[in-house]
Specification:
about 525 residues, alpha+beta, Aminoglycoside 3'-phosphotransferase, Chain: A, domain 2, Rossmann fold, 6-stranded antiparallel β-sheet, 5-stranded parallel β-sheet, 17 helices, 18 strands, elongated
Length: about 525
């Protein structure tokens, strides 16, 4: 099985960098990590990254000059999101006595990326394996990604139909070179065919997004292992520097890697949180029709990269798990391209009835991966006002005119999202019968199934719940609940869910109604 063309013997350099002699920071030990394209050496204060002398269909590190060029590019690109980690490019030199040195005065024999070391336990991949990532961290991460994308340079010379077509073509080539007898060739052929078919279906949308500023100079490799918690802040690092077709991309294709990675570790609930928070901040639900293909392509890349690493790793114990991963990712890639049809679910009820928690709980189980788009009126109201979901609004944000605009925005975004093939959960009070009729009409107009659920709880419980809220988009307090209790909500034609009991009881009733 051909995995990569190795162009130089770097074994001497690797042996040297594996010793404390390569470090001038007093390190007493050196940890080594390897990927299919890099060797990483971690000291107590400094980390050196050596690009492997390889040539693959999607990158070329075959010469010292090329590795120097890409070391400089890596530092430049990653200082955008992680200036506290990246220091610069540093040479490995051959000194007059024949010994190797880092940053010496002799002849340059290779180049390194020099970084400040950090606690690897704080990588989100490691935190996730210990069960130490939660909704609030994922919301913070989604905020940071949205901010990064907003500030990234918009480009029109990448992305679009051509950009994804090139990646699909590269994936097919990588499988042809590396697939061997490990993967089912029938599945590979089916995946490539379905990917091209899906690409044809969304070509116009991809081009509209490129022309609309959605293709940007992105990260390109945004999975959990490339995000670290630094001083409590989720920080992106190790962005792609070696191929512009992989970093000048649609922002949702950038985000898709993280979503797919979370799903692979069985945290689809958190993938749904990230997707929804990102959509809440950016208002980009109109692009959700791209996600099935974007997620599939990301899983495809993971599959053939696992194969490449299985053929090049020096850790014999890692080979079989890598092959297993390659098969899992291949199946994920296929599954993403066969999403279920969309549906519209409305969750109504007075403040404190638990509707937003229910919406968040059921969303990962509804429709296309990573689950339904949750349109929460509290969040959309604040987006209209131009503030962050957790910022409080004054009385001007709750006028009848603002409420009318908010509900109209919910209907409009629900319609656009459903037409793109993605399911929607509308999370609003829906106290007015006209509002309930309007959201039902959206489903009828689009031609998708509709389910309405009305949550109700004991007034004291609802008031206690809103009083205890933290990090919540709702500004409602106990006085708002008391005011809402006086509303004439009319006849409720939706399924009524009594939510005074435990979360498990409420979720069980909702699941029964929805057929989950």
């Amino acid at each position: 099985m051909m995995v990569a063309m190795i162009t130089e013997d770097q074994s001497e350099i690797i042996s040297f960098l594996s010793t404390t002699a390569a470090f001038s920071d007093g390190s007493k030990s050196v940890a080594r990590r390897e990927t299919h394209i890099s060797e990483i050496f971690i000291g107590e204060k400094r980390t050196f990254k050596l690009k492997r002398a390889v040539k693959l269909p999607y990158l070329d590190f075959s010469t010292v000059d090329l590795r120097h060029r890409y070391c400089l590019a890596e530092v430049f690109i990653n200082k955008r999101t992680a200036p506290g980690i990246y220091i610069g490019a540093k040479p490995v030199t051959r000194e007059q006595n024949g010994n190797l040195a880092v940053g010496g005065n002799g002849k340059v024999v290779d180049w390194l990326v020099e970084m400040n070391s950090f606690d690897e336990a704080m990588l989100l991949s490691n935190l996730a394996s210990e069960g130490n990532i939660d909704r609030f961290l994922m919301e913070q991460l989604a905020d940071n990604i949205a901010t990064f994308h907003a500030g990234a340079e918009a480009r029109t010379d990448g992305g679009g139909r051509t950009g994804i077509a090139l990646i699909i073509e590269g994936n097919a080539k990588a499988f042809a070179e590396n697939g061997g007898d490990i993967l089912d060739k029938k599945k590979i052929n089916q995946l490539i065919e379905k990917s091209i078919s899906k690409l044809d279906d969304i070509s116009s949308l991809l081009e509209n997004r490129r022309g609309g500023g959605c293709v940007r100079f992105c990260h390109g490799d945004m999975h959990l292992g490339n995000i670290v918690l630094l001083d409590g802040v989720p920080t992106l690092f190790d962005a792609i520097e070696f191929n512009e077709n992989l970093n000048i991309i649609d922002v949702l294709y950038d985000l898709a890697f993280l979503l797919m990675d979370l799903e692979h570790i069985a945290r689809g609930d958190l993938a749904n949180i990230v997707m929804n928070r990102y959509m809440d901040i950016t208002g980009s639900s109109w692009g959700l029709a791209t996600l099935p293909l974007f997620l599939s392509v990301r899983a495809t890349i993971r599959s053939h990269v696992a194969l490449t690493l299985a053929g090049s790793t020096s850790d014999a114990l890692a080979v079989e798990p890598l092959k297993k991963n390659a098969k899992e990712y291949l199946q994920m890639a296929l599954d993403y391209l066969s999403p279920p049809p969309p549906r519209l679910i409305a969750v109504g009820g007075l403040s404190g009835s638990g509707k937003s928690r229910v919406a968040r709980s059921i969303a990962p189980q509804i429709g296309s991966r990573p689950g339904a788009r949750v349109l929460r009126s509290d969040v959309i109201r604040k987006r209209i006002a131009g503030v962050h979901p957790l910022d409080r609004l004054d009385e001007s944000g709750y006028t009848s005119k603002m409420t009318e605009k908010t509900y109209k925005a919910v209907y409009d975004e629900a319609r656009a999202t459903l037409l793109g093939g993605h399911s929607v959960i509308a999370d609003c009070v829906f106290a007015d019968p006209a509002q309930r009729a309007a959201i039902e009409a959206v489903a009828k107009d689009v031609g998708v199934p509709f389910v309405g659920m009305w949550l109700k709880a004991d007034p004291d419980i609802m008031q206690a719940r809103v009083t205890k809220r933290v990090n919540n988009a709702s500004d409602a307090d106990a006085s708002v609940v008391r005011e809402q209790l006086s509303y004439d909500v009319g006849e409720i034609g939706w399924d009524v869910v009594v939510s005074s009991g435990s979360r498990e009881q409420t979720d069980s009733r909702c699941s029964e109604i929805l057929g989950l």
